[in-house]
Amino acid sequence: MSDPEAPSAPAATAAAPRTAPLRVGLIGYGLAGSVFHAPLIAATDGLLLDTVSTRSPERQAQARAEHPQVRTVASPEEVLDRAAAGALDLVVLASPNKTHVPLATAALEAGAAVVVDKPLAATAAEAERLAALADRRGLLLSVFQNRRWDNDFRTLRRLLADGALGEVRRFESRFERWRPQPKGGWRESGDPEELGGLLYDLGSHLVDQALTLFGPAVSVYAEADVRRPGAEADDDTFLAVTHAGGVRSHLWVSATAAQLGPRFRVLGSRAGYVKYGLDPQEAALRAGRRPDTEGDAWGVEPESAWGRLGAEGAPPAPAAEASPRTGAGQPVPTLPGAYPAYYAAIARALREGGAPPVTATEAAAALRVLEAARRSAAEGRTVSLR
């Protein structure tokens, strides 16, 4: 099993000089740009947040307040012009989903390496065309799948690598929330061009994690519903994915869960692993905390949040009785979350000419599953990917 901090597939990229910092242009300063990308870029040795593009004067002021050295511009074209002039080494897209393909294409044609927030594209075919363009240009193209560095996912990968569960038979994974009132905006838009809804949003993470853990999918069944009054896009969706190796993944994304299920429930021939709660890194970033100032405390969760490994009937740890919330078995220390590892790997790939931490080919595989899920939900049938 591969290491989540290691590149998982070869990709063409140009090596950069080792001395000066790599200059980064960030397009978009909404939630993704301001909470995730900008802080992580700024915290990465060897990367310099050079330019931020946002049309909002308020967000431009926010970017300058949070990153005093940054240049702010009002349009993506100004970032692309700087890339074409050789003033940027990397362009990061944290813009609305529908802009990902045209902006990534333009950035690659301008000669810059590119990181795109998920989803890379609407379809696997679009993702593959972008990957081919990057290969022809000899440039890095990667997708920001930060949830591969969630604390619970890193812990589960370690358990699987150690054989602690035996042969895994079923993988259950959830991103559930209780948001009975829609927020509006493009993420909840019913316009197909916007790629709104939870399937392509949080579902992109769940599918990527399932494929990373258990390999290619051979069939997909999905149910996608619009539950909330006034909502336009799917807000309560379920996917059943059968992997080539025989594992079945059951994946839930919902904004209508009044009671939250376990984040992970993984059942094997020897034991199961159950983990509740979310990785703490997103909440920390939203609160303004930064990995470069917290050191070893970054991404660490309290013992009370640890998951459990074991089987029914096995003796619990002393003074740690199982409950319906925690599950049976022994508590397993959760590895720290490690979002900074993504951009550290990007910097290393640019410097050394190696593979990025998440490839466009991997993104295309996940998009094939998402496309099949959308078709399955619309047609009420299982879709084969063979």
From the alpha-carbon coordinates, what is the Rg to the nearest angstrom? 21 Å
- Uncertain segments are 6-14
Q: Taking strands numbered 1, 2, ... along the chain, how are they ordered across the largest sheet? A: 14-13-12-11-7-10-9-8-15
Strand content: 15-25%
> Mind describing the biggest β-sheet?
9 strands, mixed
What's the tally of helices? 11
- What class, by secondary structure content? alpha/beta
Number of strands: 15
Percent helix range: 25-40%
The separation of the N and C termini measures: 24 Å
* Overall pLDDT: 92
What is the helix/strand order? EHEHEHEHEHEHEHEEEEEHHEEHHE
What characteristic shape results from the CA principal axes? globular
Task: Explain the overall architecture.
This protein has 386 residues and is of the alpha/beta class. It is 32% helix and 21% strand. It is built from 11 helices and 15 strands. The strands form 2 sheets. A 9-stranded mixed β-sheet has the order 14-13-12-11-7-10-9-8-15. α3 packs parallel to α4 (100-109).
Would you summarize the structure shown here?
It is built from eleven helices and 15 strands.
What keyword list fits this structure?
386 residues; alpha/beta; 9-stranded mixed beta sheet; 6-stranded parallel beta sheet; 15 strands
List the helices and strands and how they pair.
Layout: E1 22-27, H1 31-42, E2 47-53, H2 57-66, E3 71-73, H3 76-84, E4 90-93, H4 100-109, E5 113-117, H5 124-137, E6 141-144, H6 151-162, E7 168-176, H7 202-214, E8 217-225, E9 236-243, E10 248-254, E11 264-268, E12 272-275, H8 281-286, H9 291-294, E13 307-310, E14 330-332, H10 340-352, H11 360-379, E15 383-384
Parallel strand pairs: 1-2, 1-4, 2-3, 4-5, 5-6, 7-10
Antiparallel strand pairs: 7-11, 8-9, 8-15, 9-10, 11-12, 12-13, 13-14
Helix pairs in contact: 3-4, 4-5, 5-11, 7-11
